[in-house]
## 1
Amino acid sequence: MARDTRQRIEETALALFNAEGEPNVTTNRIADELDISPGNLHYHFRTKSDLIEALFAAFEHRMLELLAAPEERVADIEDIWLLLHLAFETIGAYRFIYRDLSDLCARHRGLHQRFRGILRLTMESASSLCEDLIDDGRMKASARELEALIRNVALVSTFWLAFDQVQDGEGVRPDRAAWQVMSLISPYLVGESRAHLQALAEAYT
Amino acid sequence: MARDTRQRIEETALALFNAEGEPNVTTNRIADELDISPGNLHYHFRTKSDLIEALFAAFEHRMLELLAAPEERVADIEDIWLLLHLAFETIGAYRFIYRDLSDLCARHRGLHQRFRGILRLTMESASSLCEDLIDDGRMKASARELEALIRNVALVSTFWLAFDQVQDGEGVRPDRAAWQVMSLISPYLVGESRAHLQALAEAYT
């Protein structure tokens, strides 16, 4: 029962943070929405920071799981597309984190640290996927281009949502976001692989 | 004399906003720093929003001037690099705008509108520069790739600084930022132009 209330608090907080922006939602507002007393909420989460931390931990868990997927074979273009699609679904589910990332990082030093960890792992995964494609003769890039490419993959993935927001875009569309990141890799692909990606983009966006 | 005070207020506000983040700096703090009375500051800028608006107008003026530079001839790679360098110098000078862009846009509807205007013009300029390069046989990209490229140029330009901040990077380095944007274009360049860009990257970053 207590466990159940904790779960419901997290779900309601996530929905409100996503819809209205985390700084604009108080814990009293969350208690109101759930029709529980502020004291009851306080019993489960002593501070709003504790609640934010719990939501971040759930997000982090999903991202790390995605990024740590075992690769028994060299990934092909469709595998990478799928990975990006799943990552953007997760980003969409926890979009309050990405809405004002600098602000969140400034107010919560611990989360800043952990977000940097996710970013580092993102770049390592992107790097190893690209190196596989290069070894396999499906991609061609100089070392300097590859380094800039990896940074751009991380940058576009991290700020796609904020960019969409500044432009008053259509909100989270995992396939559009996936193509926006894949388009960074596209011109470095050789022959078949480049045509394959173009076909995927035609089909999904 | 009054004119002079107004100018000094703007300069001090800009320096404090950049160093500490606009939401963390009050008008009283600015008056303190200048050793003038809050009433004197109030005489020149009725509200903090008026002050932010004045700084944004100065930033906007510099950006529009850059983006509207007349082109008598097809730009070459070095011209584009220089344009980006100047743009990132301006972004660095007014970095408080880019620090928490979503937040600033949410709190100031009018500025959001105007920022979108700058973004639109950025994409139009990038588009016309790329089309010139394509017509001139120095660049090769499909229509779908070109569209994604232009969006990525705008996205990376807009969020380069926030990304650097999240990563605890080295702060504004116009040449590194310029290369990060140019690297998006690099793989679409053909022959000489691509080699020329690589040489510039070697020399400047």
## 2
Amino acid sequence: MNKTVRLSTPNDMPRVLELIKELATFEKEPDAVIVTPEILVEEGFGKDPLFTCFVAEVEDEIVGMALVYDRFSTWKGRSIHLEDLIVKEKMRGSGIGKELYTRVIKYASERKVKRIEWAVLNWNTNAIKFYERSGAKVMKDWYIAQMDEDGIKNYLKKNENI
Amino acid sequence: MNKTVRLSTPNDMPRVLELIKELATFEKEPDAVIVTPEILVEEGFGKDPLFTCFVAEVEDEIVGMALVYDRFSTWKGRSIHLEDLIVKEKMRGSGIGKELYTRVIKYASERKVKRIEWAVLNWNTNAIKFYERSGAKVMKDWYIAQMDEDGIKNYLKKNENI
């Protein structure tokens, strides 16, 4: 099996989006994805790219992706965030996920960051075990908070006087 | 009381670091902060800044800060992360936290991002209530995973062949 992991190009973005949608379905939110291939190209390959994306290919077909970007920890300093690591369902168990994960960790090491951070669903026990065995710490005492566009608009309307 | 919220300057970083250390103590990890004022200046005010920091002043003393940076959601698109929002202990309850929070939400709105995200400790019920009342969604089904510098080094040593 001819496997490679490489940096993505703008041309890969339609296929990368298919993988993103596949993951959203796995995470039980198939309609939550509003990103388009054009947005991925614009935000990832413009003059101030917001992310770096790796793709895994088998026999010239993209079967996995990992998307990362810089963050800043006020405790540790420069770090990277692993936003998504996705392997096409049929290819799971083939070692491709581990190759992408290793590529991300090499990227972190090359950039000399202090930390890699990501989120994992608490019912995804296979992923949690994999991450813990690999040397990551899975922290169970944090919640993730989000305010979406409507939330932002409503908040500012209610708090005009501040 | 003469209160202002403004963008920080490099000169504010020593005081900002004191607030970061105060929060680390509140979160029961006083020794976890390895960042220095020099690192904050370098990463926040160089040619490719990693973050934007706001400070709150009362009678010319910095009593609070909020630190944010760009992220990218593969579902929603451009977003911002609120890494820290800190108010000096003696000034809590004075409305300064809400002013900083509002400044961050305005910043998000000005930049037309799709989402603001942050993390909150699950025992910090006052903060959770405040966020929920403000229109944020606090998600309880995610864990945060982290691999630190030693973890990165050890992983790559064990997986040299990948």
